[in-house]
Design goal:
With 444 residues, the protein is mainly alpha-helical. It folds into 2 domains: 403 residues, no CATH class; 35 residues, no CATH class. The chain has 22 helices and 4 strands. The strands form 2 sheets. Strands 1-2 form a two-stranded antiparallel sheet. Strands 3-4 form a two-stranded antiparallel ribbon. Helix 7 packs antiparallel against helix 9 and helix 7 packs across helix 18. It is elongated. It starts with a helix and ends with a helix. This is DUF445 domain-containing protein.
């Protein structure tokens, strides 16, 4: 028999025992270097090593390493926004789904409780002598006027912000800024979305390594040259990383393959049970795309709790690149308080035209700070997140497989060749070490 002849040929080989170590060693080394490559994809979050000015390799600041994902957080998050999030809907649509009328009421209640101390703070900071000399009855009239006008002003302001949110907030820049300022968030996002695929790549690599090890054992039988051990170990290292990543994302579109099914899996021992033979279909598709429904839940949760949040939107609106436009919009609403006869007459007579104009800017600055306090409230943000969670989840589920893969694909694509080459290098080193420790002593 052929199998018996092959086994006899192997058994008679002078380096038989050393050859038998090739498959298990290749499997273990492959499993280990893939684990290392995946860790290097995400860690360390911050650069670890010796910083060298104008260091020319891999975009690193020196001799050391920083995970590919945290190092390129801005670029990768920009790709995710452009290729996926931008297709889920407009920022105005998401903001409206948060029910701005309820947000305005919440902000009004919070600001109204501290309105009088806020007015005192503004006036004492700007013109303490004037405010200290005003009769309390006059101050009381100003307080009352502000309390009366605040609800209408906040409702109209929030409504106006809702309809102009696309002009006031750049969603792409908002998410990129968030990811660059909190690179751990970016790493955690990829790990939560793709942990299943990361584990698959890691574990399947051992099986692939074992298969390649068996092939290499027979190559050594035909070509009994020691150089083949590290050489093919490097080849297998390259191929393993490439195949494992390819299996996660390919094929993108599902392909259904018919086959005869004679058993099915079950929970208890013996874990399979026979069935009457029947034609079934196997869905051949990249592992990540197969999990679109499951991943949609996880990614939607991340988006509404960490990225497209009320606090992030308003923070970008108030302090981002377009904050000047926000200030102009706020002026058109907040200045209504100053235009009431009692407030305008009192302050203009006491301050003069120039100081009165400067007071307006102070009011805007203090109002922005006061407004952001309730907007950072965890309860408010959690309630707004629940309003848009279903919207994001359903739209992520509705993405095409090509669009959906871009939730995870950019993390691997960004430096995919680095991971593949790294597999080759570690494979070569492991093969050389295997040669020195096992084959050379066997020859002696």
């Amino acid at each position: 028999m052929v199998a018996t002849s092959i086994w006899q040929m192997l058994a008679e080989h002078p380096e038989f025992l050393a050859m038998l170590t090739i498959p298990p060693v290749t499997a273990f080394v492959t499993w280990l270097h893939v684990w290392m490559a995946l860790k290097m994809l995400f860690y360390p979050i911050k650069f670890w090593g010796l910083r060298i000015p104008n260091f020319p390799f891999f975009g690193l600041p020196g001799l050391g390493w920083q995970g590919i994902v945290p190092r390129k957080a801005g670029k990768i998050s920009g790709v995710i926004v452009d290729q996926t999030l931008s297709k889920l809907g407009s920022l105005e649509e998401f903001f409206q789904a948060m029910e701005p009328e309820q947000m305005a009421a919440f902000i009004t209640d919070t600001v109204d409780k501290n309105l009088e101390p806020l007015i005192d703070e503004i006036m004492l900071e700007h013109s303490g002598a004037l405010w200290g000399s005003l009769p309390y009855a006059l101050k009381r009239r100003i307080y009352t006027q502000a309390h009366q006008e605040l609800p209408d002003i906040m409702q109209s302001l929030v409504t106006d912000m809702t309809y102009h949110v696309e002009d006031l907030v750049d969603m792409r820049q908002m998410i990129v800024n968030k990811m660059e300022s909190d690179r751990r968030l970016m790493v955690n996002m990829f790990l939560r979305v793709g942990q299943h695929e990361i584990n698959f790549i890691w574990h399947i690599s051992a099986l692939i390594g074992l298969i390649f090890g068996i092939i290499q054992m027979f190559i050594f039988l035909v070509v009994p040259q020691h150089w083949t051990v590290p050489f093919f170990a490097a080849i297998w290292g390259l191929l393993t990383n490439w195949i494992a990543i390819w299996m996660v994302f390919n094929p993108v579109e599902p392909r259904f393959i018919s086959y005869i099914k004679v058993f099915e899996r079950c929970d208890g021992f013996p874990f399979i049970k026979l069935r009457l033979p029947h034609v079934a279909q196997f869905r051949f598709q990249g592992g990540f795309m197969k999990r679109q429904e499951e991943v949609s839940e996880v990614f939607a949760e991340i988006v509404v709790n960490d990225l497209v949040t009320l606090e992030n939107i308003m923070n970008e609106m108030m302090y981002g690149d377009r904050s000047a436009q926000t200030r102009e919009l706020m002026k058109s609403h907040l200045y209504q308080i100053l235009e009431s006869p009692v407030v305008r007459t009192t302050l203009r007579m006491g301050l003069g035209r120039r100081e009165y104009g400067q007071l307006k800017n102070t009011i805007i600055n203090k109002s922005i700070t006061a407004t952001m306090v309730p907007l950072r409230d965890p309860e408010l943000n959690e309630s707004r997140a629940s309003k848009i969670f279903g919207l994001f989840r359903d739209r992520i589920r509705a993405l095409s497989p090509y669009e959906f893969q871009n939730l995870l694909r950019p993390a691997f694509r960004e430096d995919e060749m680095t991971l593949i080459v790294l597999g080759g290098l570690t494979g070569f080193l492991a093969g050389w070490l295997h040669l020195v420790l096992v084959f050379f002593p066997a020859v002696q």
